[in-house]
Amino acid sequence: AAAQAAEEAVEQGQGWPYIEAVLARTAELDRRGEAVLVDTARELGLDAEEFEVALIDGRHILIVDADQAEGKAIGVTGTPTYVIGGERLDGGKSQAGLRERIEEIADRLLAVLSGQRPVHWMLRHTAGSAYDDLVRLAERAPLRTHGPRPTVHDLGWFVPRSGALEVFARIAAGTHLRALAFRLEQSEDLRWRCTAVELATPSPRRAAAS
Length: 210
Prior knowledge:
Blueprint lengths: L1 H10 L3 H9 L2 H7 L1 H10 L4 H10 L3 H13 L7 E4 L2 E4 L4 H19 L16 H9 L12 E8 L5 E10 L2 E11 L5 E8 L3 E2 L6
Antiparallel strand pairs: 1-2, 3-4, 4-5, 5-6, 5-7
């Protein structure tokens, strides 16, 4: 049911926030079941009634079943599991390897958005509209600082569907924190490329407690 609910959240344009909210309530989900899935949708301002209908009519079951079948075909035995560059990574055993690959793309994005590298440095690592997004974002070098190089403070991701990763990070750039989000999708050549990137407006960094 949770997988179907996540698909419905994606349909309503709030896949990422919904999945994060549900993951934060797994204990409650175990106790209350589907009611938590609907309540979470309502709290996020989604169409809760449509969620209830979707869980009843099973409109997303074929997508969920197809993902499960694909997972079994490549030897997935648990979650999270990822396939990157043709290599299967068991989330329970290979988190370090997965993080290393994601951090590589994040570092490249930081270098471009801080003006340290030209946009075309990402050309082979993007697909779809992501390159145009980067050209637009990089015009003003939004992560450029007069001090230390911008750094990643927090990094996380989730898997909305097979062959895709939604990545989110907090970037320390000078006296501000910026929220960076990007999507990685696996192409036919099995290479993972950035297909979307967004950068939120800056917020002041909180001073460390004395």
